[in-house]
Design brief:
By secondary structure, the protein is mostly helical. 74% of the residues lie in helices and 1% in strands. It contains 18 helices and two strands. The longest helix has 28 residues. The radius of gyration is 22 Å and the shape is globular. The protein starts with a helix and ends with a helix.
């Protein structure tokens, strides 16, 4: 049992408005206190969805039939179980407000996914979501280039030989911005290669150029590393010709001193030691609370306490820091059992996308061929940052994961 086509189109429109607000409206712009336009639209989306269910004519039938579909899906079941661990951990979390906030942020990804899985589940809707994603990526890249030359909206610089602006566009953080772009790069490249229309090919090519420029201007070492590994994987899986992209990047690094200087910082022990010490704090938390963790979202809240407890981990000017590793974050905050579930979630997504890469044809086959590389890149990025918990990056990742689940279950239809 599904909702009417008119309701579905309205849901899709509101969802796209939410995604646009999330990416295009600057992160620090709020309507009321800490509530921004994106969160407001997200609430309206869920309210409209629940009202539509109530007005569907047979609520019981809708809930019973669709619950069976939802609970048959391994990804949804695993994510719901992880959400339960998050909610339970709020009982013993030091900062309960943060814990609840992070739990319901994660739950919003599940609700969006269920909505897509049950209602927004046809080729034209999926195509519109993906196209809008690439359009918005191009827009924030243009913002990024303007930002680099004007300096407006820049909040982070890096010392190389002099202060260099790190572009963050509307995402509020250069590492998150770089991660978002690296993840979008590979599906777009895959679609460019297979596209026959010259106009669409120009659109993809121009976007790829903008993405590449902005990845460089983010001066995010994590993103540069993930981008490089992604291109190497692409070359190993498909064609060694992709290594020419790395050759061009290496030549650019030699030409521009700021890029060359940033690359050399990979070998700078002082640059890397701060992150290593943060990970050591996470390991201390895991050692002391291996089964239940310290409470969802509470790593930053308890960071200073652990540094005080273990003075050898103290670092100047670093207080209340995030874990800079999503896997350590989950393990330290939720314990070993939730960590196993989180790994199972990742394994399920990799398995599904790899299946589509091998068996799906046409537009969606090409998209998920590139997205498979993005998955590898996403895992690498989360070894150095909490990208899974950055909404501007994470929302589209989960949306594409849920779309992949639906396509896998209906692959015959999508291959015709």
């Amino acid at each position: 049992m599904q909702l009417s086509n008119k309701v579905k189109k309205t849901l899709l429109f509101v969802l796209n408005c939410y995604l646009a607000a999330l990416l295009l409206v600057p992160r620090d712009f709020n309507i009321y206190k800490n509530v921004g336009p994106a969160d407001t639209i997200l609430c309206l989306l869920f309210i409209f969805y629940f009202i539509a269910i109530l007005r569907s004519g047979n609520i019981k039938k809708y809930v019973v039939l669709n619950s069976k579909k939802v609970f048959k899906n391994k990804l949804i079941k695993s994510m719901l179980l992880l959400f339960v661990f998050m909610v339970v951990s709020t009982i013993y979390a030091s900062n309960k407000l943060v814990s609840i906030g992070e739990a319901f942020r994660f739950f919003s990804y599940i609700l969006i996914g269920i909505m897509i899985y049950l209602e927004l589940n046809n080729k034209s809707f999926f195509r519109m979501i993906i196209t809008n994603y690439f359009v918005m990526t191009g827009i924030i890249c243009i913002f990024g280039i303007i930002q680099f030359f004007t300096g407006k909206g820049i909040s982070t610089t890096v010392i190389i030989m002099d202060k260099v602006n790190r572009v963050q566009s509307t995402l509020g953080n250069p590492n998150a911005f770089g991660a978002f772009l690296v993840i979008s790069f590979f599906p777009l490249l895959s679609l460019l290669i297979s596209e026959k229309s010259k106009k669409i090919k120009w659109f993809y090519g121009f976007n790829l150029l903008l993405i590449s420029i902005n990845i460089v201007l983010s001066f995010s070492r994590n993103s540069w590393l993930a981008w490089t590994i992604g291109i190497v994987v692409l070359a190993l899986l498909y064609s060694y010709k992709f290594l020419y992209i790395l050759a061009l990047g290496g030549a650019g690094a030699l030409v521009f001193p700021s890029m060359r200087g940033r690359l050399l910082q990979f070998t700078d022990v002082s640059q890397n030691m701060s992150r290593i010490n943060i990970w050591r704090v996470a390991l201390k938390m895991i050692k002391e609370h291996p089964f239940k963790g310290i409470g969802n979202g509470n790593f930053s809240a308890l960071y200073d306490n652990y540094v005080e407890k273990y003075p050898e981990l103290w670092m100047e000017d670093i207080k209340g820091y995030p874990s800079h590793n999503s896997f350590l974050k989950v393990f330290s905050e939720l314990g070993v059992f939730a960590f196993i579930i989180f790994i199972a979630v990742m394994a399920r997504i990799i398995k599904t996308v790899n299946f589509l890469r091998k068996n799906l044809k046409g537009y969606y086959g090409e998209f998920y061929t590139g997205f498979f590389i993005s998955l590898i890149v996403m895992i690498i990025l989360n070894l150095f940052d909490n990208i899974f918990f950055a909404p501007q990056v994470a929302v589209h990742f989960w949306i594409f994961a849920f779309i992949a689940e639906y396509i896998r279950e209906n692959i015959v239809m999508f291959n015709n």
